[in-house]
Amino acid sequence: MFLWVSSVLDLLGRCVCDLDFEEILEEIPDTLNDVYCKSLERLTRDLSKSEKRWVKMLFCWVIMAKRNLAVSELKVALPIAYQIRYNSSRPPTLLENIEAILSRCGSFLYVMDGDGQL
Fold first, then answer.
1. Consecutive sets of 10 residues in the chain, 118 residues long: mean pLDDT of each?
2. Which end of the chain is more exposed for a tag (fewer CB within 10 A), N or C?
């Protein structure tokens, strides 16, 4: 139940105006699965092709990890993963800080305060 509430609050926190807020309140999903589906729809709709690429790589690292990852580890891993995935001659230099990429993940990722662990 707490995860459902947290996810709905995340959706509400991303509203740009009062009308968006009211629309979400009228269409609050009944189940956690429905909340996740709505969040994924938002990611699909709102992110650019490039942002989706980075978020997808980030999700892959977090899902496949056998332990919690530090934000600093992801900052190193993502460019290397990009280089391998897209057969680039060198890893790209991130123009944004890693927190900006993490912020695009919505309620799917949580950075624990203090130690920078996901």
1. 74 82 82 83 88 92 91 91 91 84 82 67
2. N
